[in-house]
From TrEMBL:
PANTHER family: NADH DEHYDROGENASE [UBIQUINONE] 1 ALPHA SUBCOMPLEX SUBUNIT 1 (PTHR17098:SF2), NADH-UBIQUINONE OXIDOREDUCTASE MWFE SUBUNIT (PTHR17098). Accessory subunit of the mitochondrial membrane respiratory chain NADH dehydrogenase (Complex I), that is believed not to be involved in catalysis. Complex I functions in the transfer of electrons from NADH to the respiratory chain. The immediate electron acceptor for the enzyme is believed to be ubiquinone. Pfam families: MWFE. One of its GO terms (cellular component) is mitochondrial inner membrane. Residues 74-85 have a biased composition (Polar residues). This is NADH dehydrogenase [ubiquinone] 1 alpha subcomplex subunit 1. Residues 55-85 are annotated as: Disordered. It comes from the Eukaryota. The keyword Disulfide bond does not apply.
Amino acid sequence: MPVPWEALIPFALLTACFGATGTLFSVAKRATNDGKPPRYNLDAWDQMMVERDRRLTGSHRGQSTEPIAPKGFATSSIWQTERIQ
């Protein structure tokens, strides 16, 4: 049975479009995660550590090796407080 060569052009176009879309989506995901692969299945502890890293470094994927936290870390608490009058 002969191969319908006319069908290969749309097949190649669809394959290229899906491949380009997937590649661009992967690049966009990595760009928003500082070049690292995305995290999956985060539990409460992991989310708390991500929030701590964001407050320490300004990036949710950044980590700090400094043993002492910066001065702004003391006042950037995630707990909401009320003013006492």
